[in-house]
Amino acid sequence: MTKIALCGNPNAGKTTVFNALSGMNLRVGNYNGATVSAFEKEVTKDTSICDLPGVFSLSPDTPDEISACEYLENQADRALVVVDGTSPENSAPIFTALREMKIPAAAVVTMSDILRRDGSSFDCEKAEKVLGIRVFMYEKIEKNQLKSFVLTSEYSVPSCENEEKLHSDLADCVKNRREAKVCAIDRLLFGKHGNIAEFCLVIAVMLPIFLIYSVISPLISSFLEALVDFLRQIFLSYSGGMPYLLRRFVSDAVFGGALSVVGFIPPVMMVYAYLTFLEESGIAPRLCVCFSPFTSAIGISSRAAIPFMLGFGCTVPAIDSLRAVDEESAKRASYVLPFFQCSAKFPVYAAFAGVFFGRKFSLDVLLIYACGVCFALAFGLLLRLFGRQKRICDVVELPRYRMPSFSSVMRSSGEKCADTVKKIATVLLLISAAAWVMNYVTVSDSKSLMQCVSGIVSPIFAPLGFGNDLSSASLIAGVFAKEGVLTSLSVFSGEGGVKYVLRELFSRASAVSFLTFFALYPPCVASITKMRAEFGGLHTVKCVMFQFAAAYVSSYFVYQILNYLAILFLR
């Protein structure tokens, strides 16, 4: 079988060409790293095509370049180079490398719509003379012609020898070329007062994430809760002949688990759609530049900026978006990603702050979120120092701003959401059933299994200032879902309400210690399950142990420092 390698610069349109040839719908992104691994597909019985990661050259320095070189040298019979028609000279190092490897090649030129909009054109005949290979101008409506060109064209080794001369000759293939102008937004972002503009951009991009999880998600959840409760009532009315225990299990565990899965889908779907919009519009790489001082300090790629921002909404899509980051940076980022406080923790912070800090609770909640970022930076620095990792100074290409099509956004977000739900739905249902059993089954002295387990665990938290059964049980419930901390406290509080039980269980120092532990300890089961699917079981265990240790040590020092300060001021 003839294997054709599809190679080219990042953001040149390789995946679009691959989709046109193969009929697949792979993710297309207007930023570096949209293709993070090689995808291979049979086009005919005798020919297959492989979409390689985008590279600027074929010198094996980065993971993308290494994988592309290995495929070209060991597996590829031919190479199809995708050339960005607006800047064809950037492909010169690739053609030079293909000549050295003696790999037959042909070229496909993209971005014809942008060239027409700028009043420019690409001279394919001149490019063929310069390169010594066949060159085809790709139009989106000409998929059949593209396929015919790829399958029937004569591939030949590029004739170019001098890379500098080739760079100049390819640049001359663009007729009536206009000089690239920096748009007003980029001048503002990277100009004299860029820091203020970057801060405003980050806030503007994060605002929809907060709106999705703090405003839209509760409305959808209340509707779905009412719908599931209606179905539960129908089940209860027609299941009188079932055994009582089985009836309660289906009513509470099965319907409750279904609610946790169904209620999880709409906000995640909206976040994925928003993420796809950021990627395809060209905003995502600008955000990476804004976050680069932070990500460089902890030794990871600036592409991790998007997952960190999504972490303020939900950790599950944040972990999924780590696919666009190189493997080493993605694993390093997964250790500190849960320290970015997800929206599910907000009700817990608001309840504690309202009880212990009064009118200043909104400022205190904001301070907790800021502390989460500081903890992420601190522990990220520790990981970099212990791992002897150097600061990363990576280059981010800033593509043109584009308006993505509605169909591509919905298709991409739908595929991501379906993949995520498929991986975690079964686990969520099983854990919901296990949580019901632990709360319902009584062991001794009318105590549930959950209360007995929390009684065994509670001495561990005594040095942190909250070594009681109720706070331990709430933290165990928080592993299933972060909102479960407040729910379990309200269940055990009786008629006094949550505020009463918080005043009874915590002092101000122990409350701050509890919130510190709650902010840093491992994320919910859905996130852990997603992490296991992406990185494997061993790495997930390491992350969970690291996050628990970080939470325990931080909470211990916070509690001891607050107690010391209280004694000092009382003197």
Description:
The chain is an alpha/beta fold. Helix content is 63%, strand content 7%. The chain has three domains: 2-175, P-loop containing nucleotide triphosphate hydrolases (Rossmann fold); 194-391 and 409-424, no CATH class; 435-570, no CATH class. It contains 25 helices and ten strands. The strands form three sheets. It has a six-stranded mixed β-sheet, with helices on both faces. Strand 9 (442-444) and strand 10 form a beta hairpin. Helix 16 (346-356) crosses helix 17 and helix 24 packs across helix 25. The longest helix has 45 residues, at 194-238. The termini are far apart.
Oligomer: single chain
How large is the count of helical segments?
A: 25
Taking all Cα atoms into account, the compactness measure Rg is 28 Å
Shape estimate:
elongated
Question: Average pLDDT, to the nearest integer?
Answer: 77
Given as residue ranges, the uncertain stretches (5+ residues, pLDDT < 50) are 25-36
Order of strands in the sheet with the most strands?
2-3-1-4-5-7
Report the strand count: 10
Coarse structural class:
alpha/beta
Number of domains: 3
Note the gap between the termini: 84 Å
Helix content: 55-70%
Give descriptors for this structure:
571 residues; Rossmann fold; 7% strand; 25 helices; six-stranded mixed β-sheet; elongated; alpha/beta; 10 strands
